[in-house]
Write a structure and sequence with these properties.
By secondary structure, the protein is α/β, with parallel strands linked by helices. It has a single domain, classed as P-loop containing nucleotide triphosphate hydrolases (Rossmann fold). It contains six helices and ten strands. The protein has helices at 40-47, 92-102, 107-120, 122-126, 137-151, 167-183; strands spanning 2-11, 14-24, 29-33, 54-59, 62-63, 77-80, 155-158, 188-193, 205-210, 213-216. Strands 6-7-8-3-9-10 form a six-stranded mixed sheet, sandwiched between helices. Strand 1 (2-11) and strand 2 form a beta hairpin. Helix 2 (92-102) packs parallel to helix 5 and helix 3 (107-120) crosses helix 5. The longest helix has 17 residues, at 167-183.
Length: 225
């Protein structure tokens, strides 16, 4: 499904990713664990084409490095950045719908995907007409997840989704991810996190990134808590 071959990224002359090679199978849930500054965000941004790199990335047999960043979401890749990046002047629903409209999904398909988002995150339907600039930080992360779900039909990448969440919202977010995983067995998830305990029993596989180098950790337990 997704493979990185000798991927190296330099930012300001510093190697942030160091010859990263890894393969991720379809329908797996991957935890990418590392301290702040280890390269987690850079890994996801590189997959999305947002950083200059050397090496090669393949997605579903396609050379992703030959695909412009603006076209990568159309391949079925959803990405929720750590900082959410919501459009404050738009409503919650307009923010969620935007990737599908940019990808020119048909009205029927966009409605189907929006209904799916609301099934997984019913609280977003209650907030649909609210200006995105009026939601809390934790609610904003839910909106960002919904936006990623609109376009991420094959792969969804979530960058530090639990960071800064109050315990109640963190549990709700985890519940939404379980619902998502259970509702679509073909979907692949990559979730970055600094605290390995948060994803230990959720992920099928744990990758550890240290100083820009990625290695496999002992596989996490398969049971969901």
């Amino acid at each position: 499904m997704l493979a990185l071959h000798d991927v190296t990224v330099r930012l300001g002359g510093v190697r942030v990713l160091r010859d990263v090679s890894l393969s991720i199978e379809t329908a797996s849930t991957i935890a990418l664990i590392g301290a702040n500054g280890a390269g987690k965000t850079t890994t996801l941004r590189t997959i999305m084409g947002l950083t200059a790199m050397t090496g090669r990335i393949e997605f579903d047999g396609i050379d992703l490095t030959a695909i412009a960043p603006s076209r990568r979401p159309k391949l079925g890749i959803g990405y929720a950045a750590e900082d959410r990046r919501l459009f404050a002047g738009f409503t919650v629903e307009e923010n969620i719908r935007m990737p599908g409209e940019v990808a020119r999904l048909s009205s029927a398909e966009l409605t189907r995907r929006l209904d799916r988002v609301y099934d997984i995150l019913p609280e977003l339907k209650e907030m649909a007409d609210r200006p995105a600039g009026a939601v809390s930080g934790g609610q904003g992360k839910m909106v960002a997840l919904g936006r990623a779900l609109i376009i991420g039909s094959k792969l969804i990448m979530l960058d530090e989704p639990f960071q800064g969440l109050a315990p109640v919202l963190a549990r709700r977010y985890a519940d939404a991810l379980r619902t998502l995983r259970n509702s679509d067995s073909s979907l692949t998830l990559i979730i970055t996190e600094s605290n390995p305990d948060l994803l230990r029993k959720f992920a099928d596989r744990t990758l550890v990134i240290e100083r820009g180098a990625v290695r496999d950790a002992r596989p996490a337990g398969a049971d969901v808590v």
